[in-house]
Design brief:
Length: 305
């Protein structure tokens, strides 16, 4: 008897199940999921989900260095902190963060916006650069002591003031952010963007601090994605070809469950006996394999959650 596979042949990275709330399962998918192996609940969140598929040594989550290597090729020179462009809208109770990173900036706009920030952050010992319009970086000295910064998924849509860093080190970064906000607010690029009906860049999002990992290994060799962090991890993993055969497909941007279901027939046909793993960002997961069709006594799943 053949040993059970230890890895799927295809894995789908999916958003949280609540993104599909109210959308029905087709009868075929309801049967598939009922007969599949439901894996034990895992940690929720983007970081935890990606770390289920990539091993980093030393342990950590230095996203700034990981994406910097792909964006500029110089990540080994420093520790790094992302300082992504952001749009914050004041409201009656605070300041709501409505966009981080992807604001549709051109390279020229990004460079112009970063220009007045260079003396501010350079004098503080953190040179700023924007090798990609959506991803700005601060180079950190090795001895830099940083407060804890909230990741974008926690900040986006929430009140900015609830996520500002605390403590003595946090006070320094709050002051830097305040000065940067004033400079950005007064920048002519933002005036032009507002006149054109575009979102201005009036704040920054600090996150992802750390040094480039010494080693990155992927559980599955082929990665299908255009998301910066995942693509950057996959590029680093190519330097260490111990990855298993298989394909990791990123469909976290989907919000239509029928579109997810449409992927399953081809994925199952491609996967063969090793099957397909559905990995949701909230930690839920199902492993679908051909032999499970004999579990016909199981009642179809009524809903994802």
């Amino acid at each position: 008897m053949a040993a059970a596979p230890t890895e799927p042949a295809v894995a789908l990275l999916l958003p949280e199940r609540r993104r599909f709330a109210g959308q029905p399962l087709s009868p075929a998918t309801a049967r598939l999921l009922a007969r599949a192996d439901a894996l034990p609940p895992a940690e929720a969140g983007e970081r935890a989900q990606l770390l289920r598929w990539f091993e980093l040594l030393p342990r950590g989550w230095p996203v700034a260095a990981i994406t910097r290597q792909r964006d500029a090729g110089d990540a080994t020179l420093h520790s790094w902190l992302r300082a992504d462009p952001a749009y914050v809208r004041p409201d009656m109770t605070g300041a709501r963060v409505l966009a981080i990173g992807e604001l549709g900036l051109s390279r020229d706009e990004a460079e112009a916006l970063v220009q007045p920030l260079r003396p501010l952050f350079g004098d503080a010992g953190f040179p700023v650069s924007a090798p990609h319009p959506a991803r700005w970086y601060l180079a950190l000295p090795v001895e830099a002591r940083l407060p804890a910064f909230a990741p974008p998924e926690a900040v986006l849509g929430d009140d900015l003031f609830l996520h500002l860093p605390d403590g003595p080190e946090g006070r320094r970064w709050r002051a830097l952010l305040n000065e940067a906000q004033v400079m950005l607010h007064n920048h002519p690029v933002n005036a032009a963007r507002i006149a054109a009906g575009k979102l201005p860049v009036n704040s920054l999002c600090f996150w992802g601090a750390g040094r480039l990992p010494d080693h990155v290994r992927a559980r599955l060799r082929d990665v299908g994605s255009d998301e910066a962090t995942l693509v950057s991890l996959a590029a680093l993993a190519q330097a260490h070809p111990q990855s298993g055969e298989g394909r990791l497909l990123d469909v976290r941007a989907l919000r239509d469950w029928a579109a997810v279901e449409s992927l399953l027939p081809n994925a199952l046909a491609e996967a063969g006996e090793r099957g397909v793993l559905l990995d949701f960002a909230d930690g839920a997961a199902w492993w679908l394999r051909p032999g499970q069709r004999w579990r016909f006594w199981r009642r179809p799943l009524a809903a994802l959650a």
